[in-house]
Amino acid sequence: MTRKIHYWASLIIFLPAFIIIASGTVLQLKKDVQWIQPATQRGIGTLPQISFGDILAAAQSVEAAAITGWQDIDRLDVRPSRGMLKIRSLNQWEIQIDAATAEILQVAYRRSDLIETIHDGSFFHDNIKLWIFFPTAVILFVMWLTGSCLFVLPLLSRRRKRERLKIKAGLIV
């Protein structure tokens, strides 16, 4: 029964599991590969000293980000210890600016967020995330359990058999 569950479950989740594994593998490298996620730069200070107006002006100066106002900004990520902040536009461009001077430190396209949405299934649709990718995770867990049984049970069986043979041979009293 365990083999059948393992066999058919693997067939059912083949494509979503492939997507999860492939995108997860890429995400493991996001801090090491700048193509996935731009490296975090350093500013000159440690305390943010610029205003929100300065942040918006710096963001608007980057054509690729296509920022005309706050509605075009997805999020701000403030890193006081690095003296900088990241501005992420809705079109996935990341602008890193010095938190003390508002000088632009780096502009780069950020792919990690897109890859994360592919990884969790929300890229395709929220219902696909809930009704395909979540069950895939549950099935993968069941497959891990059945695979563990398929691995461990024969080992235990051989061990018991060896012990019975030793007892029969009079080696163990």
Write a structural description.
The chain is built from five helices and four strands, in the order αααββββαα. With 173 residues, it is of the alpha+beta class. The chain has two domains: 1-36 and 114-163, no CATH class; 38-110, Nuclear Transport Factor 2, Chain: A (Roll), CATH 3.10.450. Strands 1-2-3-4 form a four-stranded antiparallel β-sheet, with helices on one face. α2 (14-27) runs antiparallel to α4. The longest helix is centred in the C-terminal third of the chain and has 43 residues, at 126-168.
Task: Give the CA-CA distance, first to last residue.
Answer: 37 Å
The helix fraction, in percent, is: 40-55%
What global shape is seen? elongated
- In spatial order, strands of the major sheet run 1-2-3-4
Number of separate structural domains: 2
Number of strands: 4
List keywords for this structure.
173 residues, alpha+beta, Nuclear Transport Factor 2, Chain: A, 2 domains, four-stranded antiparallel β-sheet, 14% strand, elongated
Write the layout of secondary structure elements.
Elements: H1 2-12, H2 14-27, H3 52-60, E1 73-79, E2 84-89, E3 93-98, E4 104-109, H4 112-120, H5 126-168
Antiparallel strand pairs: 1-2, 2-3, 3-4
Helix pairs in contact: 1-5, 2-4
Provide a brief overview of the structure.
This protein has 173 residues and is an alpha+beta fold. 50% of the residues lie in helices and 14% in strands. It has two domains: 1-36 and 114-163, no CATH class; 38-110, Nuclear Transport Factor 2, Chain: A (Roll).
